[in-house]
């Protein structure tokens, strides 16, 4: 499967990385000078398993070079504001005129239409409007910011990948491609489907830290330990809850588990117990139980955890520790095949493999790596 990625930041590159991890031949079309907010390309693991060329889309022949790639591709991914690709001459109409089977994936925050479609934004603004940001954090503090995992990657990248793969299945069955409008506001709202059902049924209060899964429940949350670490507790079911209290050494005061008006008292007891030992000590206590308790690890600690190490959840490639490709397949295993693609480094190879006009031969990849 051939994928053209028009370089951007955030959810588009991550979606293309996932496709590359799964085995697609992803060619990233970098712009001269690189995208904004970029880190050193040598460390940008979202560009692993890809190849890169550099195209100046504002040059007279720039759009034609991209259309040459689109003609030979199965999927194209772009993350411009609505209308930008059309003005550059590489919009869906231009691409489908050359390749009617192409799946054209559009990754934006606000979507291709609506009052905010032309406005700038980032993850935090998108999830703010969907109600999901407002669910996270303590009631007496501002909503907690979940990095850019909830909007950009969960509500954005993953929905784009699902969409383009479904559209690719349709294109291969019918011979007709289509446009996939993957908006972070849509995907993030979709992630909250269960919560909306609970809200409608009266089983969810529309405020922070007042519910079973948002930190309001004393047996579903995090607690500080004696050494300043934290333990995560998810003892929802009866038998897990009973095991949790037994190992913690705490009694349930008057069945507070079932009475949310007594959750504060129960939380105080649990918090006091956790403060009596270190994170390592509590990890040992709960290690062989079904109490659903785990230590809260940092990014640098996580790869060394025995379970994650045994599964190879993280891998080292080129001196960079990074998450291994996921999910896993019994017949077609995935791997980190190559490190982050350097802008323009693969121009000559892509021209050869994709059968597009070769770049000038001033150097191994053409002048400045441009196509």
UniProtKB/TrEMBL annotation:
GO MF term list: transferase activity
One Pfam family hit: CoA_transf_3
Keywords: Transferase
Record flagged with keyword Transferase: yes
UniProt keyword Transferase present: yes
Highest taxon above the source species: Bacteria
Annotated region (Disordered), positions in chain: 316-371
Protein name in the entry: CoA transferase
Source species: Streptomyces argyrophylli
């Amino acid at each position: 499967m051939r994928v053209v990625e028009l370089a951007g930041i955030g959810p588009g590159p991550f979606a293309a990385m996932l496709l590359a991890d799964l085995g697609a031949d992803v060619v990233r079309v970098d712009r001269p000078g690189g995208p904004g907010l970029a880190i050193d390309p040598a460390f940008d693991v979202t560009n692993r398993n890809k190849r890169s060329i550099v195209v100046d889309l504002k040059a007279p022949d720039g759009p034609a070079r991209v259309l040459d790639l689109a003609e030979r591709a199965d999927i194209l991914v772009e993350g411009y504001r609505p209308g930008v690709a059309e003005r550059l001459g590489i919009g869906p109409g231009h691409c489908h005129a050359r390749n009617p089977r192409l799946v054209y994936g559009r990754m934006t925050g606000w979507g291709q239409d609506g009052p905010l479609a032309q406005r700038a934004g980032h993850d935090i603004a998108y999830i703010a409007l969907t109600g999901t940001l407002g669910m996270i954090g303590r009631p007496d503090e501002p909503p907690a910011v979940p990095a850019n995992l909830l909007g950009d990657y969960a509500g954005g990248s993953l929905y784009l990948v699902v969409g383009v793969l479904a559209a690719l299945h349709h294109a291969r069955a019918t011979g007709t491609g289509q446009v996939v409008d993957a908006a972070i506001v849509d995907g993030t709202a979709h992630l909250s489907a269960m919560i909306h059902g609970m809200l409608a049924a009266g089983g969810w209060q529309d405020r922070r830290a007042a519910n079973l899964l948002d930190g309001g429940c004393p047996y579903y949350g995090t607690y500080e330990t004696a050494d300043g670490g934290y333990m995560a507790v998810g003892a929802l079911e009866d038998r897990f809850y009973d095991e949790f209290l037994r190992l913690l050494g705490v009694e349930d005061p008057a069945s507070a588990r079932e009475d949310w008006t007594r959750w504060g008292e129960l939380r105080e007891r649990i918090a006091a117990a956790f403060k009596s030992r270190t994170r390592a000590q509590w990890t040992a206590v709960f290690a062989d139980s079904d109490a659903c308790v785990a230590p809260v690890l940092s990014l640098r600690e996580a790869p060394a955890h025995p379970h994650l190490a045994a599964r190879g959840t993280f891998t080292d490639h080129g001196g960079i520790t990074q998450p291994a490709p996921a999910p896993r397949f019994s017949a077609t295993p995935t791997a980190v095949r190559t490190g982050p693609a350097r802008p323009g480094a693969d121009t000559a190879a892509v021209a050869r493999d994709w059968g597009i006009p070769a770049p000038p031969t001033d150097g191994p990849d053409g002048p400045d790596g441009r196509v």
